[in-house]
Amino acid sequence: xxxxxxxxxxxxxxxxxxxxxxxxxxxxxxxxxxxxxxxxxxxxxxxxxxxxxxxxxxxxxxxxxxxxxxxxxxxxxxxxxxxxxxxxxxxxxxxxxxxxxxxxxxxxxxxxxxxxxxxxxxxxxxxxxxxxxxxxxxxxxxxxxxxxxxxxxxxxxxxxxxxxxxxxxxxxxxxxxxxxxxxxxxxxxxxxxxxxxxxxxxxxxxxxxxxxxxxxxxxxxxxxxxxxxxxxxxxxxxxxxxxxxxxxxxxxxxxxxxxxxxxxxxxxxxxxxxxxxxxx
Length: 280
What we know:
Elements: H1 2-7, E1 12-15, H2 22-37, E2 40-45, E3 54-55, E4 60-61, H3 62-67, H4 69-74, H5 83-90, H6 98-109, H7 115-125, E5 131-132, E6 143-147, H8 152-168, E7 173-177, H9 187-197, E8 203-207, H10 215-218, E9 222-225, H11 230-233, H12 238-241, E10 248-252, E11 257-261, H13 262-278
Parallel strand pairs: 1-8, 1-9, 2-6, 2-7, 3-6, 4-5, 7-8
Antiparallel strand pairs: 9-10, 10-11
Helix pairs in contact: 2-13, 5-7, 6-7
């Protein structure tokens, strides 16, 4: 409760190695926010065992995707060094529907010499299952989980979900991205995503590390779980980790620094899940 009070309307990042309690902490805080503030929760994970609420198929408006298509595609492979492809990507804004843009690329790809169009068509088709031309109302589902894959489609989806939250700018819709660092997102793109997301209050992320960033760069309320072995001895956060015992986590906000007991949080999570399941 004190973490949520200190957190207020700020974003949150949870850092820690596998099986250290990241998921338990971030989903519990999300469930508490739903209970206390009525927030709509969208939770992305690759583990079916971590599902909270209803499993939902992601649907993101084409208008949001087309205006940010470069950022989505660039998350997996760098496009700035490929001007021919970048030019085709920038033309997406002209097309009112996803299908029209696909037809345009197919027309261009009929020429064997237009390798850029053929390449881009293959990448755009990976978005087929998550794009909609319709205006959608995700608020019909109060707590939902999106199961993501750990491949190129997963990298695209995670980036698209973040961008969609920015397009909507609904402060009462909370997006939680779990283990985003296991996705094949380029490090430069991941750093860009982290910097983008920290400016929006409705995006929380759990990750194994923060790459080349440090906590001062994040300038975001952060929870760090306990580390052991090489994960602790080789970490740039050794001074902080030395204060965290096994089974604990440390919340570092702007106004408070609080210890978190993982077992207590796990019990609270189970209680909140039971309540949400009995009151869909």
